[in-house]
Structures are given as C-alpha cells and as structure tokens.
Amino acid sequence: MKLLVQSDDYGITPAVSSGILYGIEHGIVRNTGLFVNMEWAPMVVEWIRPYLDKICFGIDLNLSAGCPVCAYNEVKSLCQNNEMFMTSKMHRQAENAKPMLYEEILKEYHAQIDRFIELVGKKPGYLHGHAYRNEDTDKAMSECSKHYEIPISSEILKEKGVKCNPMSWYPMQKEYDSVLDIDTVSYFVNDVNGYLDSDISFILTHCGYVDRELFQLSSYTLLRTKDLEAMTSEEVKGWVIKNNIELITYYDLQKL
C-alpha cells in the first residue's frame, strides 16, 4: 500500500519547524506546508531547502495566526485592531457581525503565494487551508489554484480516492496531562484507524517542538510533540517496513 504523511504548519514557529524537519529526516513525514507570513519564514525556508528533493513542499494559506502579508489597511476585515489576524475562534464569532470580505481574502492569498515563490524559488506543491474556513475562503483558494495552476491538497486526495481518516488520536480536551498520556505510537502500530485497509491512505499530523511563540499562536501545542514522537518512532517506522508501505508525496499521488 501507499501512505501519504503530511505535517501541517511548517514555519508557524521556529520550534515547530525544527520538529517537522526532524520528522522528515528521521521519520516518515513527506509533505508539509509553509506559513509564509511569519517573520522567521526566510530562515526556516533555508532550513528545509536541503530536503526539497525528498518531500512535497506546499503552502498553508493562513488567515488566523500572526500578521498578514498584505498591509493592514488592505485586509482590515481579516484582522484585529492590533493588526494581527483574527483567531479562528474570533472568525467564527464574527461571521455575522464582521464577516471577512472576499476581495480581501483573495488579495491575502495571492500575496502569500507570491511570497512563497519569492522565498522558495518555485511554486508550492499544493495549496492547503489552515484552521478556519468558509465558503469564501474555499472560493478564493479555488481561484488561486486556477490562477497559479497549483492543485489543492483535498482535491488531489478526493480525485485519487484516498482514504482520509480523522485525527481521532487527538483528545477532545487538550489539558497537558491528557495530551502527554496519549499513546500515539500504539495507535499507529495497531492500525486503529485502519490505514492498511486501503491501497492508498493519508495521515495528517502536526509535528513539532514547542516554544513560547507557539502558545501565542495555536491551540495545538503539546499535541505536536506526540505526533512527532509517533512519526519518528522505531516502532512506527518498523510498521511501515513490515507492511511494505510506500511513503509518497502529493507529486507521486498525482502521477498515479
């Protein structure tokens, strides 16, 4: 069977980026998407450059963490008064009171993709939406996909009939003690989600280490260390070998 392992949020913080790199070099991660709007984006792009022939490097289009690539006065409907993006929770609460303007979503998406091309020197391998989404964000992503001729990750998976299981190893309550008690390694080694039942399966993770910035930007904190633990463990890598699993990228998937 073939398995596509994706770890979202490369570039959200330096520590998360370091963790994803470790998951690529020492584990089974083969796909990740960049946050281009963070101040350390140029630095983490250089970190990952030696691995670009091994992975599919996409973009996580982001409207809920950090500051926009566009000037604040160009995308005010996406932002708080402090000029940072509204969080996913804020976006949901503001859907009726202060909805995001489609034109501003599209402008910011274009700016983020252009920034990726400037930093990396080529187009993203795929487009993927981070966290909050609605009809307008989906429409803007679709328009960008056509404009730049870049596929959308979810559409590739759907077109190829890939089994997409939920991240059911994530606890409903994310208190630190419950997170640290999760046995992610056994979850995959015992194939709780039935990945082996399909010819092609998909694992979405959020690997990473933790730093101060992460607690300011994301509700996914210690969960990332548990994902990284599983994706780099000898047990999970042994499970891959034992079951003759071929690790693939979105590039590989599109050729099937």
In short:
This protein is α/β, with parallel strands linked by helices and 256 residues long.
CATH architecture: Alpha-Beta Barrel
Distance between the termini: 13 Å
Number of strands: 7
N-to-C SSE series? Answer: EHEHEHHEHHEHHEHHHEH
Q: Kindly estimate the percentage of residues that lie in beta strands according to DSSP.
A: 5-15%
Form type: globular
Largest sheet: 7 strands, parallel
Overall pLDDT confidence: 93
Unreliable stretches, pLDDT < 50, 5 or more residues?
A: none
Helix content: 40-55%
Number of individual domains: 1
CATH topology, anyone? Answer: TIM Barrel
- The CATH superfamily label reads Glycoside hydrolase/deacetylase
- Cα-atom radius of gyration: 18 Å
Keywords:
256 residues, TIM Barrel, globular, 7 strands, seven-stranded parallel sheet
Would you kindly provide a written description of the structure presented here, covering whatever features stand out?
The protein has 256 residues and is α/β, with parallel strands linked by helices. The protein has one domain (2-255): TIM Barrel (Alpha-Beta Barrel), CATH 3.20.20. Helices cover 43% and strands 13% of the residues. The chain has twelve helices and seven strands. The chain has helices at residues 14-26, 41-48, 88-93, 102-120, 135-148, 153-159, 176-180, 184-189, 212-217, 222-232, 234-242, 250-255; strands at residues 2-10, 31-34, 56-61, 127-129, 163-164, 200-205, 246-248. Strands 1, 2, 3, 4, 5, 6 and 7 form a seven-stranded parallel sheet that branches. α2 (41-48) links the parallel β2 and β3. α1 packs parallel to α10 and α4 (102-120) crosses α5 (135-148). The two termini are 13 Å apart. The model has no long low-confidence stretch (mean pLDDT 93).
